[in-house]
Amino acid sequence: AESYLQIDKIIAACKATGAQAVHPGYGFLSEREAFAQALKENGIVFIGPNPGAIAAMGDKIESKKAAAAAKVSTVPGYLGVIENPEHAVTIADEIGYPVMIKASAGGGGKGMRIAHSAGEVAEGFARAKSEAASSFGDDRVFVEKFIVDPRHIEIQVLGDKHGNVIYLGERECSIQRRNQKVLEEAPSPLLDEATRRKMGEQAVALAKAVNYDSAGTVEFVAGQDKSFYFLEMNTRLQVEHPVTEMITGIDLVEQMIRVASGERLAISQADVKLDGWAVESRVYAEDPTRNFLPSTGRLVTYRPPSEGPDGEATVRNDTGVFEGGEISIYYDPMIAKLVTHAPTREAAIKAQARALDAFAIDGIRHNIPFVAAVMQHPRWIAGNLSTGFIAEEFPDGFSLPQPEGEIALRMAAIAIACDHRLNSRKRHVSAQMEGWRKVEFERTRIVSLGGERFEGQVSEQGGAVTIAFPERSLTVASDWRPGEPVWRGTIDGVSIAAQVRPILNGVSLGHAGAYADAHVYTPREAELAALMPEKAAADTGKVLLCPMPGLVKALLVSVGQEVKAGEPLAMVEAMKMENVLRAEKDVTIAKILAKQGDSLAVDAVIMEFA
C-alpha cells in the first residue's frame, strides 16, 4: 500500500530514471484508470489499454453493464454498489444461493467470497470489502449467482489503436484454490472449434465496443455442456499468458509494447493458428497440507529445471526470485510459473510432471508436491475439470501421497542407488589404515518406504547399477552426487528425476507426486531398526497455533469465554489474504498469548484452551 499502489511515487521514479513507458505487470495499479491517466498527463506511455477502456472493463460492475449492452451472455446478479451487509443479504436472497461476493476492482482471487447462506453473506461482505481496500484501494463489492460445477475458461484478445482486435484462442483455468488459479492450460479440453469461435467472437465484440487497444482477457464461466457466461474482463496481461504464447508463437508482451508505441497489429485473425498443447503450474510459497496457507522465509535452495527442449516437449520457467532471496508476508505468494509445451495434451502433462520432479526448493513450504500430485490424477489427465476440482478431489485437505506400485518400486531403486553411491565414496576415503582388509559392503539392501519393505540385490556393471527385486530387476544409471537436491538419471532407459534430501540411514524422496522417507538398511540393520520405538507426536489439541507467518488483525474472543465449534477465534493476515481461524471443537479460552498487531511465526501459540 505504501509502494506499488502509490501513483506519485511511480511517476517520480520514471522521471528520475528517464523511463519513457511503464508496463504495469499483473496486479497493483495495472487496472486502475487513474494510473493510466496520470502517466498520460506526465508524458509517460502506459503499456496497456487506454483509460476509457480500463474504466469500462476494469471495473467489474461497469464491465457487466457494458457486456449486457453488447448482448453478451452474463451471469445473473446485482450490478449496483452494495453499501452494507443487510443489503447484500437481501440481494443474495433474491438471486438464490450460492452467490459470489466480489470486489469491483479486484483480481487474483483477492476480495472474493462464496456464500451459501445469509450468515455467510454478511461475513463474506465484510472480508471482501476489507481485502479489496487493502489490495486495490477500492472497497466496492457486488453480488452475482455462483454457477455450480463450472469451468473457468478465458479468451485472450489483442487490439491496437487503429480499431483492430483479434482473439488468440482460450485458456482453461479451472483448477483453483481460494478463487485463485493454480494450473492453466491452452487450449481447453472442453471446447470444440465452433464453441471456441463463438466465445472468441463475443470477446472481440466486447473489446471493440470499448475501443480496447492492448492485450486483455475476457473471462467466462462455462458449463459442462459448453454453455458460457461473461464473468469479467482483465484489462491487463494475465499471469498465465505463457501458455497462449507457447501454442500461438505470439509474444504478448512484445505485442503490448508495439501497440503502445502506435503500431498496427501485424497479425490478422486468419494468421492465428493453435499448435500443440501447453500446461502451466503456478509455483506458490504456500503449504498445501495446511489448506494452502502462505509460507514465508528465505529460499535456501531455488533450482528450477533446465529450460529448453525436453524430447518432443519444451520447458519454460518464468520467475522473479533467486536462491538466497526472501519471500515476505507483504506480496502475492507466487514465485514462478513452470510451463511445458508439447504436440499433445498427454505429452505436455508428462513433460510438466518431469519438470516438477526436477524443481528443487528449500527454506519455505511450497505447492510443488500438490501440482505434482495433480499431474498424476486420473480426473486431471482425463480433462474432466471444474472450479470445484480441489474441494471435490481433496475433501479432507491435501496430504503428501504415499508411493504405490511402479512409483514405489522406482523410488526404492533410487534410494538403493543413492546408498550405493555413498558406499562407493566411503571406499575411497584417504588415510585408511594400511594392511587392513578392504571394506566389503553388503550387497543386499532393504528399503523401508512409506510403510512398505523392498529387498534388492545390488550389482554394478559399466557405470550402471542393477537392482534385482523379487518381482523384477531395474537398471539405474545416474551421475548424481551426494548433496545434490535433485537426482537425475534413467531407470531401464527412461529419464527420471526425483527430489532427494539426506536423512539418517537413507534419503527423503519425492517423485511423480509421491513423497516418503526411504530408510536403507543391510539385513542386520533392518532387524535392529524394527525394534526401535517411534516418537509420538505432540498433542496440540489445547492450543490455537498460527497456521502461517502473518499479522494478527483481530482477536475475536476473551479469556474465560466459552466457544462453540466453528466459531471464529482470531484473524491473521498474510500475503494480502485475511484468514479467520475457527474453533475445531467446543472450548473455553484459558489464556491469550498474542495481541492485535503482533507478527507471528508459523506454529506460534495464539491462545490456550481449558
UniProtKB/TrEMBL annotation:
**Cofactor list:** biotin
Q: Which SUPFAM superfamilies match?
A: Glutathione synthetase ATP-binding domain-like (SSF56059), Rudiment single hybrid motif (SSF51246), Single hybrid motif (SSF51230)
Give the EC number: 6.4.1.3
Catalytic activity from the UniProt record: propanoyl-CoA + hydrogencarbonate + ATP = (S)-methylmalonyl-CoA + ADP + phosphate + H(+)
Spell out the InterPro entries in the cross-references.
ATP-grasp (IPR011761), BC-like_N (IPR005481), Biotin_BS (IPR001882), Biotin_carboxylase_complex (IPR050856), Biotin_carboxylation_dom (IPR011764), Biotin_COase_C (IPR005482), Biotin_lipoyl (IPR000089), CPAse_ATP-bd (IPR005479)
**What pathway does this protein act in?**
Metabolic intermediate metabolism; propanoyl-CoA degradation; succinyl-CoA from propanoyl-CoA: step 1/3
Look at the named UniProt entry and state the broad enzyme category this protein falls under.
ligase
Q: Note the Pfam families from the entry.
A: Biotin_carb_C, Biotin_carb_N, Biotin_lipoyl, CPSase_L_D2, PCC_BT
- Annotated ATP-grasp domain ranges read 64-261
* The UniProt record lists the keyword Transcription: no
Q: What is this protein called?
A: propionyl-CoA carboxylase
Q: Which organism is it from?
A: Bosea vestrisii
